[in-house]
Amino acid sequence: MGALIPLRADLGLGDGYHSAQVDVDVRLNTNESPYPPPQGWRDDLRDLISSVPFHRYPDRSARALREALAELHDVRPDQVFVANGSNEVLQALLLAYGGPGRTAATFEPTYALHSHIAHVTATHVVEGERRDDFTLDLDAVASLLAEHRPEITFLCSPNNPTGRAEPEDAVRAVIEAAPGLVVVDEAYAQFASWSALSCVSDEAPVVVVRTFSKTWSMAAARLGYLVAPASVVEGLERVILPYHLDAVKQAAGRLALRYRAEMEARVKTLVDERRRLAAALAGLPVETWPSEANFILFRPRDRGGDEVWQALVDRSVLVRNCSSWPRLGGCLRVTVGTPEENDAFLHALSEVLSS
Ligand code: PMP
C-alpha cells in the first residue's frame, strides 16, 4: 500500500475563498439577487424536465443555449462558451491560456478568484495596484503590462468588491496596451451603464465573461458564459470535460432568456434601491465608493470593520467582512436586497454607528 501523499506544494493558498455563513434574517453578503426567477420560468422548467431523456448524455456543445445567448448579444454561437458558473468559465480560460510558464495580470483589489484560480492552474500572477480611490492608473497599467507581458490580463467591471465600473476609455486603453488576452469579468454588467461586449470580435483578443447568478436570479443553477473570438472558444473546448453542462442546466438557461423583460425589471428595482442605499450611507459616518453593481463597499470612519460586522450580525444582518483583505482595511460590502432588507440593514447600521 502506498502512503497518503502531500498536497501539491504550490497550492499554499490558505483557506480558499469563502463567505462566512451565519444564520441571520437578512443576508446581504454574497451579491445574489433577493428575488427568485419568475413563476413562469419555474413552470416551463418543470415541464421541460419531465421530458429530458435522462438516460442519454446532454448535448455536448449546448447548441440551443449558445444560440439563444448569441441572439441575445448579437454574436455568433461559435463565439459563446458556457460552463458551470462564471468561475468555471474563468478556470477554463486559465487552463487553456494560462498554466505553467504563463502569466496573468490582475489589478488589486479585485475579484479574488482571478488570482486564486490562476494559482490553482499554476499560472504566474502579477498584481498591479489601483489608486487609493480604486480607479485604474493607466500609466501604471501600461508599464506593468510592458514589463511582465502577461498572456492574460484581467479586468472586472463593475469591480468586485469595490463596485466601480471601468470607464470605456480605460477598458479600451488596457486592450490597446495588453500583449495577450484581455478578460473582462462582467458578472454585474447589467447593473452598469456600459459593457465591453462592443469590444469583442474575432479579430480582437477580448473576452467578456457573464453569469446567470446575479441579474438572472439563478445562483443555484451554476451557469456562466463568455463571449469571445471563435478561436478562443475552440481553445476552451480542448480543456473542458466532455458533457460538462447537464441537460437541466442547459434548459434552465435557455428558458431564462425568455424572461428578459422580467430580469430587466428586477435590475431596475435593484439599481433604484442601490441609489437609495448610497444616499442613506452618505448621511452616516462611513466612507463609500460609487457603485455600478448590486453591492456597495463602505468603511466605517470611527469604528473597526470587524466590530461593526459583528454588531450587524448581532442584529441579524449579514454583510461581507472585507476588513482583513489586502488594501481593504476596515471595509464591509453590502449586497443590495429588497427594500425591506435594505431598511433593516440601514436601521441596524445607524444603530451600531451611533452606539
Ligand atoms: N465574477 C465575479 C466578479 C463575481 O463576483 C462572481 C461571484 N461572486 C463570479 C465571477 C462567479 O460567479 P458564478 O460562478 O456564480 O457565475
Care to describe what's here?
The protein is built from 11 helices and 12 strands. It has 355 residues and is α/β, with parallel strands linked by helices. The protein folds into 2 domains: 9-37 and 261-354, Aspartate Aminotransferase, domain 1, CATH 3.90.1150.10; 39-259, Aspartate Aminotransferase, domain 2 (3-Layer(aba) Sandwich), CATH 3.40.640. Strands 2-8-7-6-5-3-4 form a 7-stranded mixed sheet, with helices on both faces. It has a 5-stranded mixed sheet with strand order 1-11-12-10-9. Helix 5 (138-148) runs parallel beside helix 6 (168-177). The model has no long low-confidence stretch (mean pLDDT 96). The structure holds 4'-deoxy-4'-aminopyridoxal-5'-phosphate (PMP). The site of 4'-deoxy-4'-aminopyridoxal-5'-phosphate has 13 residues, from helix 3. 4'-deoxy-4'-aminopyridoxal-5'-phosphate binds at residues 31, 85-87, 111, 156, 160, 185, 187, 211, 213, 219, 224.
Shape: globular
Q: Name the structural class.
A: alpha/beta
**Looking across the biggest beta sheet, what order are the strands in?**
2-8-7-6-5-3-4
Count of the domains? 2
Key attributes of the depicted protein:
binds 4'-deoxy-4'-aminopyridoxal-5'-phosphate, 5-stranded mixed beta sheet, 7-stranded mixed beta sheet, Aspartate Aminotransferase, domain 1, Aspartate Aminotransferase, domain 2, 355 residues
